[in-house]
Amino acid sequence: MNFEIKGWCPGALRPMASGDGLVLRIRTRNGRLEPGQAQAIADLSWSLGNGMMDLTSRANLQLRGLDARGHGKATAALARLGLLDDSPEAEARRNVILSPFAPQDGAAWQAAEAIARAMTAPDAPQVPGKFGFAVDADPPVLAGTPADIRLRPQAEGWLILPDGGDWALTARHAAQAAGRAVELARWFTQGGVRDGRGRMRDHLRRSPAAPPGAIPLPPSLLSKYPCDRAAGPASADPAGPGPAPNGWLLGFAFGQITARQLTEAAALGPLRLTPWRALLIEGASRPQIGGAILDPSDPLLRVHACTGAPGCPQALADVRALARRLAPHLAPGRSLHVSGCAKGCAHQGAASATLVATGPDRFDLIRDGRPGDPAGLAGLAPDRIPPLLR
Ligand code: SF4
């Protein structure tokens, strides 16, 4: 392994150093931004960052290219916008993804808010970095979104599902579901955390006994939430660019969005961030944002590429430039992940083809796997790769 595992994600109060300066992650409330908040963030990106931002797979927004002074100014501005937590610890524990299609103030919305409140309270379960929740709505769209605990509404009541488990907890209503999810997180902390790290799936492998009140997971859900999703196939995002129940989804190559694009989007309505690195504009119809992906068949939507060089100090190659060159060669229905090192930040799941940089112009190819899996071909030069993608 030639990369550093940090075990935590950047936040607003705890930014992460990268090759292009500090990365500041904004964890919006339930993934929603009012137009004024989005415009203000775009202004911060212009004035304090490098004008580039990331839409992350945790449905957050990252400012890039800040220095220490800019970071201080940015956090003060975020506090004024109501987008800052009280402490880095509270910020890290408030790791809740809500379905971007969940109606505002509906049951799923309220469940996600209740979890966020509980996880930032003084008596919150002390979960490790990266431990997170996903709150789905009806119809569910977050089955492919990694989460340690997920909440799923049923025809009557809710299921609370631990990642990697073959059982679930039940609840009659959203408030009870949120409470049970937080109690499940507390149950996890009693044995699931080692050296400050841990994930639910690993805990259940070691200690498969379920807590009191658990029911066996219905077979129909076992297929949707396989016990070991890490070994599951590459899956397409459930929602591509186009109309959505509450607005219009726009795609952005590699989840990269500029301050100008965010300004244009903010002028059209409130925004929802999604775990598919797409942006939903509430109430919009066929919005025109320069450089956004509108065509659901655009092969760039099936390509994952991390920041790579020069933005990431661990990167061995400029992977986004290569990913753009390779996208037109990708056969329909196939996915590609180009990673600057074996850490694989851009995509946790498998891809039809995964390229891992081993030097500025050398890549290992893994078929139907992920970075870290055994490579089928090693040391490929970029011009040898296109025929291998068909
Ligand atoms: S996967 Fe990419 S972004 Fe992540 S550490 Fe490696 S080079 Fe950097």
UniProtKB/TrEMBL annotation:
Gene3D superfamilies: Sulfite Reductase Hemoprotein, domain 1, Sulfite Reductase Hemoprotein,Domain 2. It comes from the Bacteria. Transmembrane segments: none annotated. Residues 195-218 are annotated as: Disordered. Residues 209-218 have a biased composition (Pro residues). Residues 15-78 form the Nitrite/Sulfite reductase ferredoxin-like domain. Keywords: 4Fe-4S, Heme, Iron, Iron-sulfur, Metal-binding, Oxidoreductase. It holds the Pfam family NIR_SIR_ferr. This is Precorrin-3B synthase. It comes from Paracoccus simplex.
